[in-house]
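Thread title: Can someone regenerate the structure for this chain?

I was given the following input by a collaborator and told the matching structure tokens would be attached. They weren't. Posting the sequence so someone can regenerate them.
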Amino acid sequence: MNSIRLNVNLNFQQLLDSIKQLSPKEKLQLNEALWEENMDIPLEHQTLVLDRVKKARENPKRLLNWDEASKKLKA
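Best answer:
Regenerated them for you:
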């Protein structure tokens, strides 16, 4: 397979507009290609999430349902 190097400067909106022109199959292929990349989650983030899960399991009453949380965010 021959390859070419293409460098096109687009802002985010231009890129998004270009992607919207793709067929559903092409959009799916693009999505799969983007998510194939192995992204390492930093240890600090892993620790933070695990700590929050532990606290939630230890005291489930501390959690808010979405309606309660949404009201607090709006206040």
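Residues 1 and 33 are 18 Å apart (CA to CA).
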